[in-house]
Amino acid sequence: MTYKYQVTGVALVSLLAACSSVEERELASGSFEYTQETPGQRINIPEGIDSPKFSESYKLPELGAAAPTDTLGKELSVLSPSLVLPVVAGSHIDEGSRVARVWFDQMDDDEPLEVSIWNQLISFVEEQGYGIQELDKENLRLVTDWIVYDASLENSWYTIYGSERVVSKRFEFKIDKKPHGRTASLSANLVAYKEKLTPESPEILVPKDQRRFEVNVLNEVVAHYEFNTRVQSVKRFRQIRQGLQTELGFDADGEPAFIVDADYDIAWPRLLLVLKKLGFDVKDLDKSSGMLFTSYSDGEGSWWSNIWSSESGELPLDEDEYRIKVLDIGNKTSITFMDEESQPFAVNKLTDLFQPFSENMSDDNLDI
Question: Would you state the pLDDT for residue 10?
Fold first, then answer.
């Protein structure tokens, strides 16, 4: 019997909670008689009487000049503060700023930072089905068409008092980059607002909490950006782990080279793993120019070097300094081995390296 009453009580609480509309849940509840009160005065102490000690522990700070003085009672929102969430790797915010803005630092040199942010913004708008009123790619500015929220579409069968509230918003998104080009920001600004509580009620054109709307939509864009970045990272990681086919050929300068059947951004990290397996120590590198400065050692007879051993248990290379040039040749990548003086390996010397190099490149289970 007790269990029955508990279930009934839970159902009743749920039903009562559903009775309140969205706009009612955003406001304080209870009595608002305090709005009619006047601020208290200090106690007047008669002459000849010792004054008591007054504590300042609970003294309220003075209102600033720009503080709203009419947000009392039902005009006061009780929702928690809206915070910009910089969840994308390399993103951050200006602490204490009231502007809905998030900053991004360049983490990948595949494309300019502002292009990456712009593409993610366009992707978000398209995915959400939002219309676009203004699109200025040159100045990295986008203004949406009206984004409409109709509360009546979310009314449930068990709701006693449904809401007919309709809110329409238009946002401006702006990308600003710093002069050095490796840091850029994305900001959201509410440029137009319309709200009707019922079809017959007057139209409200000023939102009670503009920043909340701006922060919420900005966080949606940032979450979209983070999700796509994570998906691309997983996809790229899988491609790097997969075996890549290699053949003998020539680079763009006509020099003997290994030709890897993969894009540059996939072949580059895979090459670093293969070189380590083969006993090369990468001392310096520059991905933008495709240059690697390495030294080769047989690892003093390590178990790995013995797998590809000749009679001496080494690769057919002297323990020396070597340079490797990696170039993007369309949807494939050329890898040219050179000596310390940047002279490319002869065909026969490169051919001697082909078997161990190609087998490591094609290994699907290469350890990382």
Answer: 46
